Amino acid sequence: MQPRVILNSRQLELTINRLCRQLIENHDDFSNSVLIGLQPRGVFLAQRIYHLLQEMTGCDTIDFGQLDITFFRDDFRRRNSPLIPNQTTIDFLVENKKVVMIDDVLYTGRTIRAGLDAMLAFGRPAGVELLVLIDRRFRRHLPIQPDYTGKTVDSVISERVDVRWEETDGTNEVILNSLKKHDE
Amino acid sequence: MSELSSDHLLGIKYLNEADIELIFSTADNFKDVINRPIKKVPSLRDITIANLFFENSTRTRLSFELAEKRLSADVVNFSAASSSVKKGETLIDTVNNILAMKVDMVVMRHPNPGAGLFLSQHVDSRIVNAGDGAHEHPTQALLDAFSIRERLGAVSGKKVLIVGDILHSRVALSNIFCLQKLGAKVMVCGPPTLMPKYIQSLGVEVEFNLDKALAWCDVANMLRIQLERQDTRFFPSLREYSMLYGLTSDRLNRLDRKIIVMHPGPINRGVEITSEVADSEHSIILDQVENGVAIRMAVLYLLASKIERLA
């Protein structure tokens, strides 16, 4: 099957724009809220949202961090390739804050589970919301659902959703690929 | 490159440059972890590690134990002084008995060179060498090079001086291997009696005058005189040794630039290094100790990921 474009560059921009407006509805000026992007791929989306929110709200003091979940994953020693970590940069505590956790694709939910664990090292948040660009709503392994969704995709296990970013792939788009093996 | 080429850490000799870089980049992340309010990650929660110390150690043993606990591994400690080794049990028997209790990894310090290698050939477990006689002390060399990289930005091209009891030092040998693999130049300095006969064959420079050696280097790593390994007298007196090979602030002040001072510990203040220097801004001795935990976490994490997969 040919790769199918789910969101092109223009649609992606509109979607991110809408997600930001939804966030502002619930978080006002973000004085008690923080944004946390999950490494490695969720960070690109989180950065865009962070910059757009600063523009929209005129507030340049929004807390923004990048969280690596490698050491908290539940598939250590269960994969063929070892898990190599990325950098965590969170220079604030999430204690009593409303956290918006941001990732590109929600599929099995295991990454988010690990993210919730990893975040405990930075305090006890007042609450956590989940924002994802793509929600692959079938085949969830855990009872985890997003609060903000860019687009919901119904896909089968042999398909793979690729979110491509200008920084790493030279283009902004979301593609549905047909693959034999899937690894989240 | 995202996996160690070796199943054990027996010595720097068995690692390649990519392995060392992988350990460093992983240690960067663990250094971040141990500076958080909650210093623990759950990666090794289903791994049991035995720390077998057949020789005294404070720093290394504590550092390994902390590293293991911060990775959530289960830890059992063993020291030869209070064990059946005293009743005549062999090394293989001792370790096999411990492994029969379902231990996945062994961290071992032993007075005999090659004890780790020997064990890795005879028992079914991952072995981490925490010092084997006067042979190697790989995690110390890794944390030393990591500390240099942290302070100077890189190891490659730097001039590192190792001063003291080169003959009896496992730290010296592992450091030479590690620094050379990373592209640094190494010089050793000490009394001729404490210099191994064929040291030049390792590709290091040898200098017997400390002041000349200090003028050459970017980093000086001061080693302790290993009195416990010396069966004869190698120099007339500690006082004379300290006058000729002790690092003092006078010596440092005579240099035209700032150098970094390191020491693997334990320090004999007033012998190889004065208190003034050990506590000065030149010294990165306490950074070395902190980095030791991060490096050991990285080594244990990377080796554990090679333990047979569960599913």
Q: What would your notes on this structure say?
A:
The complex is a heterodimer of chains A (184) and B (311). By secondary structure, chain A is an alpha/beta fold. Chain A has a single domain, classed as Rossmann fold, CATH 3.40.50.2020. Chain A is built from four helices and eight strands. Chain A has helices spanning 9-27, 42-57, 110-119, 166-169; strands spanning 4-7, 33-38, 63-67, 98-106, 127-136, 148-153, 159-164, 173-178. The longest helix of chain A is centred in the first third of the chain and has 19 residues, at 9-27. Chain A is globular and about 45 Å long. Chain B contains eleven helices and nine strands. In chain B, strand 3 (105-110), helix 4 and strand 4 form a beta-alpha-beta unit. Chain B has 311 residues and is α/β, with parallel strands linked by helices. In chain B, strands 7-6-5-8-9 form a five-stranded parallel β-sheet, sandwiched between helices. In chain B, helix 1 crosses helix 11 (285-304) and helix 2 crosses helix 11. The interface between A and B is medium-sized, with 24 and 28 residues.
In DSSP terms (H or I, runs of 4 or more residues), the helix count of chain B works out at 11
Q: State mean pLDDT of chain A (0 to 100 scale).
A: 89
| Backbone CA Rg of chain A | 16 Å
Largest sheet of chain B: 5 strands, parallel
On the 0 to 100 scale, the average pLDDT of chain B is: 91
Instruction: Give the assembly state of these chains.
Output: heterodimer
* Count of helix runs of chain A: 4
Structural class of chain B: alpha/beta
What's the SSE pattern of chain B?
HEHEHEHEHEHEEHEHHEHH
Please estimate the helix content of chain A.
Answer: 25-40%
Give me the count of strands of chain A.
Answer: 8
Determine the strand fraction of chain B and express it as a percent band: 5-15%
**How large is the radius of gyration of chain B?**
19 Å
| CA(first)-CA(last) distance of chain B | 23 Å
Low-pLDDT runs of 5+ residues of chain B are none
